C-alpha cells in the first residue's frame, strides 16, 4: 500500500514536470504553467479573493447534500420497506433522473430566483437519487434468515428495520453517500454556471470572460480539493463502520 502511494506521488510529480516544461511552448492564455497556477491560487487565498466564493459554494453543497441526502435516505427506506410505494414511485423517480439537470437549472432559477435557494435545490436533486437507489438496495438485501430470527423473537417491523436492515445495509448506504458528495459539487457548480454572481462556479464563468486561464485552473483546484475532502470524510465514516462491525463479530 505504501509503495503504491509512493508510485502515485512520483507519477503526479512526473506529470507536473511534463506540464511545466510543455507549457513553455504555449501561450499562458492556452496552458499556464503549474507554477503560475499555484502562485495565483496562493495569492487569491492570502488576499481573501476566494473566500466569499468558497463560502458560497460550500454552503450550497452542504445544504444541498443535507436535504438531498435526508430525502434520498428517507424515501429509500420507505420504498425498500413498502413494495406498493416502490412500484408506485419508482417510474416517476427514474423519469425525473432521466432529465439532464443542466436543462432543469434555468427552470429552477425561474422558480426560486438567482439566490442560493435555486442552487441548493439543484444540488439536492442531484444528490437524491444515488442515496435513494443504494438505500433501497441495502434494505431489500437484508439477510432473510436474520429477519426470520427477529420475527421469532417478537420484534416489530420497525424494530427489525432499525436494528437489522439499516445497520446491515449501512455500507451500501454510505457508498451511495460517497457518490452523492461528488455529485453535490457538480450540482452547485451547474447552478452557479446558469445564474450566479458568487461561488466557485460563477468565478469560473468570470475567468472565462476575463481570459484568465491561470485563475480558472486555480478555481478548479479548489473545487477538486473540496470534493476530495468530502469524499475522504465519507470514506473515513465507512472505515469506522467496518471497524465497528469487526468488533461486533
Question: What is the topology?
Answer:
Elements: H1 2-22, H2 34-47, H3 51-81, H4 83-98, H5 101-112, H6 116-140, H7 144-152, H8 157-168, H9 170-194, H10 200-210, H11 213-248
Helix pairs in contact: 2-11, 3-4, 3-6, 3-9, 3-10, 5-6, 5-9, 6-8, 6-9, 7-8, 9-10, 9-11, 10-11
Walk me through this protein's architecture.
It is a single chain. The protein has 249 residues and is mainly alpha-helical. The chain has eleven helices and no strands. The radius of gyration is 22 Å and the shape is globular. The two termini are 26 Å apart. The model has no long low-confidence stretch (mean pLDDT 85).
Largest sheet: none
Let me know the average pLDDT.
85
The low-confidence runs, each spanning 5 or more residues with pLDDT under 50, are none
What's the tally of helices? 11
Instruction: State the shape.
Output: globular
The H/E string reads HHHHHHHHHHH
Estimate percent helicity. Answer: over 70%
Structural class: mainly alpha
Q: Approximately what portion of the residues adopt beta-strand conformation?
A: under 5%
Q: Give the beta-strand count.
A: 0
- Based on CA atoms alone, the radius of gyration comes out at 22 Å
End-to-end separation: 26 Å
Amino acid at each position: 500500500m505504501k509503495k503504491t502511494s509512493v508510485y502515485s506521488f512520483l507519477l503526479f510529480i512526473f506529470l507536473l514536470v511534463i506540464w511545466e516544461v510543455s507549457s513553455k511552448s504555449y501561450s499562458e492564455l492556452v496552458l499556464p504553467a503549474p507554477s503560475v497556477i499555484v502562485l495565483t491560487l496562493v495569492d487569491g487565498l492570502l488576499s481573501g479573493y476566494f473566500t466569499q466564493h468558497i463560502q458560497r459554494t460550500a454552503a450550497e453543497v452542504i445544504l444541498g447534500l443535507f436535504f438531498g441526502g435526508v430525502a434520498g435516505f428517507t424515501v429509500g427506506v420507505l420504498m425498500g420497506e413498502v413494495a406498493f410505494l416502490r412500484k408506485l414511485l419508482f417510474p416517476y423517480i427514474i423519469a425525473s433522473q432521466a432529465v439532464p439537470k443542466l436543462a432543469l437549472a434555468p427552470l429552477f432559477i425561474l422558480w426560486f430566483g438567482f439566490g442560493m435557494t435555486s442552487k441548493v435545490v439543484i444540488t439536492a436533486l442531484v444528490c437524491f437519487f444515488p442515496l435513494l437507489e443504494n438505500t433501497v438496495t441495502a434494505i431489500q438485501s437484508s439477510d432473510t434468515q436474520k429477519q426470520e430470527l427477529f420475527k421469532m423473537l417478537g420484534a416489530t417491523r420497525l424494530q427489525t428495520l432499525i436494528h437489522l436492515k439499516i445497520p446491515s445495509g449501512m455500507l451500501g448506504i454510505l457508498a451511495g453517500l460517497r457518490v452523492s458528495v461528488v455529485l453535490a459539487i457538480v450540482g452547485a457548480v451547474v447552478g452557479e454556471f446558469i445564474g450566479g454572481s458568487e461561488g466557485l462556479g460563477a468565478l469560473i464563468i468570470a475567468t472565462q470572460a476575463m481570459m484568465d486561464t491561470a485563475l480558472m485552473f486555480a478555481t478548479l483546484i479548489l473545487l477538486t480539493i473540496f470534493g476530495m475532502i468530502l469524499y475522504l470524510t465519507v470514506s473515513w465514516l465507512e472505515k469506522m463502520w467496518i471497524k465497528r462491525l469487526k468488533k461486533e463479530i
